[in-house]
Amino acid sequence: MPSVLPKLNSSDRSAIRTLVHLYRQVDKETVHFKKLSKIHCPPLCGYCCATADVETTSLEMLPLAAQLWSEGKGDYWLKKLGAAGSKKRCVFFKPYQRNSKQGRCMVYALRPLICRLFGFSFNKNKTGGYAYGGCKIIKKEYPKTIEKMKKMLGQKPQLLKMTDFSMRLFGLGSTMDQKLIPINQATKITLEKVGFILEKQKSQCKM
Asked: Of 9, 160, 175, 186, most Cβ neighbours within 10 A?
């Protein structure tokens, strides 16, 4: 099935290219972070994915929305998102039957920034400094490493900071596009947006 990219406006196409490039950069930086910190997610762990607390922006879901419509799966996922609502876990997380906290992401390559950076970056704290904010599973799995990282923070290491990349989103879309909302809601908004553009073009072709 042909890509829907040529049917989108120039600003959306530009945003998608920028986001895909940004995601590649983040992935390279997280590899570096893991190498220095020795921190990794436990095998098959989906603890953070199996919650409704994950928030992202509708802008960050644009590459995924374009991909799903290109694959002819836009309507399918809109129905899934409508049934799930914004207060349930991400619809793209597929848990294993024997353990709902384990599973895999069905859209891993196009997941948003929070899914790439959480656990592998530093966050700004209230005093203007930085703190490590990994999940409790990582903290339990690597207690000694976490203590070492606290000492590293005092030395101002050149490691990944979440704000380094989230700041690059400014200017790519509207203020509403950059508002943090539940991941299911963000995905639904962007899928509907792309779907509306495609439907509008289809109607114009029939005239």
From this structure: 186
In this structure, the strands spanning 99-105 and 93-96 are antiparallel
- According to the model, what pLDDT value does residue 131 have? 77
Q: Is 114 part of a structural domain of the chain?
A: yes
Domain carrying residue 185: 5-199
What is the helix, strand, coil percentage profile of the chain, to 5?
A: 55, 10, 35
Residue 206 lies in a domain: no
Q: How many CB atoms lie within 10 A of CB 158?
A: 7
> In the chain, what is the greatest distance between 2 CA atoms, to the nearest angstrom?
67
Classify residue 116: in a domain, yes or no.
yes
Supply the pLDDT for residue 133: 72
User: Is position 207 within any domain?
Assistant: no
d(CA 57, CA 79): 20
Contact 132, 146 (CB under 8 A): yes
Q: Which pLDDT does position 73 carry in this prediction? A: 97
